[in-house]
Amino acid sequence: MRRAFPPVARVDWAFFLDVDGTLIDIADQPDAIRVDTSLLDLITQLHRASGGAVALVTGRSLSDLEHHLGPLRMPLAGQQGLERRDAAGRLWIHAAPPAAKVSIKEALASVLARHPGLLLEDKGLTLALHYRQAPQLAAYVHRLMGRLAPQAGPDLELQRGKRVVEIKPAGFDKGTAVAEYLSEPPFKGRRPVFIGDDLNDEHGFTEVNRLDGISIKVGKGPSCARFYLPDVAAVHHWLGEAVKGIP
Questions:
Q1: Could you give the 3-state DSSP secondary structure of residue 208?
Q2: What is the pLDDT of residue 247?
Q3: How distant is the alpha carbon of residue 97 from its chain centre?
Q4: Could you give the CA distance from residue 151 to residue 73 in angstroms, rounded to a whole number?
Q5: How far apart are CA 243 and CA 109, in angstroms?
Q6: What DSSP line would sit under 75-98, residue for residue?
Q7: d(CA 44, CA 67)
Q8: Which of 29, 72, 128, 185 is the most exposed place for a label (fewest CB within 10 A)?
Q9: Mean pLDDT score, 193-210
Q10: Which of 132, 164, 162 is nearest to 145 (CA)?
């Protein structure tokens, strides 16, 4: 299905924004991203103009995201919705059983030793195995993580992304994070917007579509999103138009 460009953004909407591949370009390693001041200024201006109805919804942990964002303070949902800071500053956490995470890490130790191109990222509540630097191992990584998840516990599931497979507690995702925000001020009652680029963003698109919101896929590839923007620069421009002329 060919998707159209989204309508002009309005500051009375509720904005839910993925980070990697949406607001910033994807780096070879998660720690190698660059967040420039112009992006921080844009998000700050949108947050202020919308009355605080902007949340970043990401696969990163909140501590990692805060490290890269610096002094920016706003609603954040991390680890695919497993941890969430609301507009009032309250923190909500859906934790995985610690023993399950330990068993997965132990099972992956020898794999990481044999394949130095693989990177295991422990986000606190989830484990993500990246193969960005070893794309030839894609099928192997998917099979391996697909076997480890059910072995570690019945309440775990896989989340696939761009050259990464993540094991996380079942039942929580970016869509559930969006739904939780929309039940609270200042998001409640507004038309929701979700912008993302990856497979893990499809949950957010689905929830927003259900509410007749604005779902925007960044880049090429199949998606249930109704609208399209070609790249990170286009996302910045689209959001910038919403606050253009607002002091």
A1: helix
A2: 66
A3: 22
A4: 39
A5: 48
A6: -EEEGGGTEEE-TTS-EEE-PPPH
A7: 16
A8: 29
A9: 96
A10: 164
Question: Which alpha helices (DSSP H) does the chain contain, by range?
Answer: 37-49, 62-69, 98-114, 138-152, 174-182, 202-210, 232-243
How does DSSP assign 151-172, residue by residue? HH-TTEEEEEETTEEEEEETT-
**Could you tell me the two tokens for 127?**
């484990």
Place of tokens 């949108």: 46
What's the pLDDT score for residue 86?
A: 96
CATH architecture under which domain 14-94+172-243 falls: 3-Layer(aba) Sandwich (3.40)
Nearest Cα to 138, choosing from 120, 164, 106, 119? 164
Q: Select from 3.30.390.10, 3.90.1580.10, 3.30.70.1020, 3.40.50.150 the CATH code of 98-169.
A: 3.30.70.1020
Helices 98-114 & 138-152 angle (0-180, nearest 10):
150
User: Any catalytic annotation for residue 155?
Assistant: no
Q: Exactly one of 18, 86, 197, 201 is catalytic; which is it?
A: 18
Percent pLDDT > 90 in the chain is 66
Per-residue model confidence (pLDDT) at position 155: 83
Structure tokens belonging to residue 209: 């579509």
* Domain chopping of the chain, boundaries: 14-94+172-243, 98-169
Burial class (CB in 10 A: 0-12, 13-18, 19+), 118: buried
Of 151, 93, 163, the residue nearest 126 (C-alpha): 93
pTM, rounded to two decimals: 0.85
